[in-house]
Amino acid sequence: MPAVAAVAVGAAVLAPPLLASADDQGLPPVTPEELVAQVAGAEAPALSGTIVYTARLGLPSLPFGTAAGADPVNLMSGSSTLRVWTDGETRSRVALLGAASEYSVVHDAAQAWTYSSDDDEVVHYTLDAADVARLQELEKSGPPVQGDLPTPQAAADAALAHAQELSTVSLDGVTTVAGRDAYQLVVTPKSTTTLVGRTVLAVDAETSTPLRVQVWSAQDDTEPALEVGFTDVTFATPTDAVLTFSPPAGAQVREVVVPLPTDAELAGAAQEKTDGTLPAGVTVHGEGWDTVVEVADVDVAGLVAGDPEALGDLAQHEPTIGSDSAQALLEDFGRDPSQGAPGELDPTALFDAITTAVPEGRLISSDLFSVLITDDGRLLLGAVSPQTLQGLA
């Protein structure tokens, strides 16, 4: 769900020559263009802080209570709290907090650890010696790929990633987030049919770091449909003790050696990106905020049952986030279906709860996006109305 919402945010930049004036905080005036350039050019800072992620997507109520633990299902609705620490370079720690549990990801250069207090298990991800050497050579040729955890920086990057003709970008004065003065950048789609009404980015006036991102639905102007922002933040390098992982006493430790893609695979992926090649079975309709992605040959029954092969030809295109630590989080959340769903979650019950029957198949409708799963094995997704997807089907 967070990934879908992040994709829906993606479209922006540059704007009419408006100006944010200095107010009582005494901040210097800035234009939207200047603020966008500052955000894009800012280096990743060292910091520590608390992030609250809140989803008000208008999804149907689930047939079970919200899990008390640090469970990714909780990201579909309500609020989740994360603690983050990073040196701004190769070391970071992220903890997804639950009422009575924690899921942590610690990243240190070419290795990462995940820890779930629910099952008291540590997973240690490493590369073999040859791949470590290759990784070091690859990093010399360019900057490392950044992760896509649900942080204000990641959400802001998505919102500021695309062409100026898709949106109007303006400034809405200044605000205070986590006790820090910030400019507010407002991205408003030019599309009149997208479900996204606007995206508001609060940018730290001193460091140009996004402190909060709010995504508003075109259908509800009372509160953001999706919000991720700091409640407290300190711009300083965390102590070595915080960024160093030690397995808790008594925890089980599982070792996983992660294969680095071959040079041929990396070259092929880069070529696909350059050519704009889509994976087999994927079709894109429309553009900008009205883009709809269609995936063919989806084994719906297999997906509901948690079968990782259910996407058929797309199975070879493994889901990826980017950085080692973020990828470890994704992979560990994508558990072996034979072990059962986290927290005894019944995927069939979840599917039935969040979808409704329509003539074409089953529909997921929210305030920011729609998903249609057709009876003939196609999946259509976009930040558009259900009627738009049904018309394309």
UniProtKB/TrEMBL annotation:
<protein>
    <recommendedName>
        <fullName>MucB/RseB N-terminal domain-containing protein</fullName>
    </recommendedName>
</protein>
<feature type="signal peptide">
    <location>
        <begin position="1"/>
        <end position="22"/>
    </location>
</feature>
<dbReference type="InterPro" id="IPR029046">
    <property type="entry name" value="LolA/LolB/LppX"/>
</dbReference>
<keyword id="KW-0732">Signal</keyword>
<dbReference type="InterPro" id="IPR052944">
    <property type="entry name" value="Sporulation_related"/>
</dbReference>
